[in-house]
Amino acid sequence: MNSELRDYLKKYNIIPKRLTIKNNVCIIDDKYVIKKRKNNNLDNTYQYLKSRAFDYFPNEIDKDDNYDVYEYIKDINEPIEQKVLDLINLISLLHSKTTFYKEVDIDDYKEIYENINDKLDYLYNYYNDVITLIERNVYMSPSSYLIASNIDKIFNCIYYGKNEISAWYELIKNQRKMRLVTIHNAVNLDHYLKSDKPYLVSWDKSKIDMPIYDLLMLYKTHYLDFDFTELFSYYEARYPLFEEERKLLFIMMMIPLKIEFNCSEYELCVKVRKFIDYIYKTENLINAYKNIKDKKNNLD
Question: Under 8 Å CB-to-CB from 243, ≥6 apart: which residues?
Answer without folding.
Answer: 171
